[in-house]
Write the C-alpha cells for this entry.
Amino acid sequence: MNEEAAILTGWRRGRLWYGRLRQRAVGLPTEVAFDWGWALAREERHGDVLGFYHTHPAGFPTPSERDVRTMRAWVSSLGKPLLCVIASGDELAAYLFATDEDAGHALETVERFPRGVVVVIGGEKGSRL
C-alpha cells in the first residue's frame, strides 16, 4: 500500500476541531508529498488550515521523526497550532503541535466521517486558532 496525504481545513472552537480533507495525494509506500503551495495560498486567503492528514500503511499511527520536523516547520511558518492526523489500518490518531519546538501530543478523540470530514477533540481549553 502507498501512503496518502491531505490538507485539513476547517474551524476550531475551544477543544473541538472540525475539518475536511482537501487536496488528497497518493505517494510511495513510505513517503508522500502534498501540495504545499496550495496549503500556503489557502491559509493566506481563508486562514482555515487546521493541519495535515496522512497514512502510515505499514506502521503505527504515531508521528515519525520526519513528521515532527515537518509539523514544527509548518507551525513556525503559519504561526499557529496545527493538527497531525495519522491513519494506520483501522487506527486513527491526532497530535497537536503548538510550537515550533513541540514534539506533538496525542489528543483525546479523533473520528473520520464520510466525505472527508474529520472531528478531533482535545487541546488547551483557552487556546485559539
Observations:
- The chain has two helices and eight strands.
- The longest helix spans residues 65-78.
- The mean pLDDT is 90.
